[in-house]
Amino acid sequence: HLSTADAAARSYAAVAKLKQEIGLPPGLGDLGLKEEHIGMVASEAIQSGNVPVNPRRACVEDLGAILREAM
Q: Which of 3, 42, 60, 67 has its CA 20 to 30 A from that of 54?
């Protein structure tokens, strides 16, 4: 049996490989997201119906950090 950490690492690697195989760009920056867009995108995202039902609470700053990480 795999440890949780090993399963997570394998899952990450599989998703990264699939992303490359189907031609998705490496990050949101490659799709045109710029630092100056992050505040607006995070503010709009916090208003979506998805945030309240997410099992992990998030604020605008959290969403901004996630977007930066995904750039």
A: 3
Q: Which has the closest alpha carbon to 68: 36, 20, 23?
A: 36
- Which two three-digit tokens encode residue 31? 């799709």
The 8-class DSSP code of residue 48 comes to: S
Instruction: Quick: pLDDT tens for 35-67.
Output: 999 999 999 999 988 888 989 899 999 999 999
**Under 8 Å between Cβ of 70 and 24:** no
Please report how many Cα atoms fall inside a 13 Å half-sphere around the Cα of residue 17, on the Cβ side.
6
Chain center to CA of 19: 13
The model's pTM: 0.74
